[in-house]
């Protein structure tokens, strides 16, 4: 697993050993970032269920001004800290150990981009997407990765699905925050 482009291009990233963390495939990551690449510079990002932190690190490498990494697993938190150091983006990164829904309930920040990549079959997609609207800046975007047959709605409150991208067994859905 590596950073695809930007200031940290080619940096190899660690992942948490075992089957609990499922890194995003390079092909999926390339497609995901091609959809938002030119919008990232100077923007803020939130990487929920961060795992190894690869999506947030890719955003920072491509010019995002800040990324908050949230994962409840202590092992993931340690791997993310090592990865942001290796990618030389630690000064623009904050790593938080917390449950995603608990973090969203208390978060007072607003983000331009949110990456949501929970464990497949977590059953919380709807609840998570509904909880995201208050932490999104106006016009903010959410990119949700899941299995191909994941039943996502066309909207969750103010979040409106813009497009879905399919990559084999994986789908990435792009939501944007509508008018309040």
Report on this model:
This protein is α/β, with parallel strands linked by helices. About 25% of the residues lie in helices and about 30% in strands. Strands 3-2-1-4-5-8-7-6 form an eight-stranded mixed beta sheet. The chain starts with about 25 loop residues before the first helix and ends with a strand. The mean pLDDT is about 90.
Residues in helices, as a percent range: 25-40%
How many helices? 5
**Largest beta-sheet characterization:** 8 strands, mixed
Globally, the shape reads globular
Q: Provide mean pLDDT, rounded.
A: 90
Q: Which regions are unreliable across 5 or more consecutive residues at pLDDT < 50?
A: none
* Order of adjacent strands in the largest pleated sheet: 3-2-1-4-5-8-7-6
Distance between the termini: 39 Å
Rg estimate, integer Å: 15 Å
- Taken as a percent bin, the fraction of beta residues is 25-35%
Helix-strand category: alpha/beta
Order of SSEs: HEHEHEHEHEEEE
Beta-strand segment tally:
8
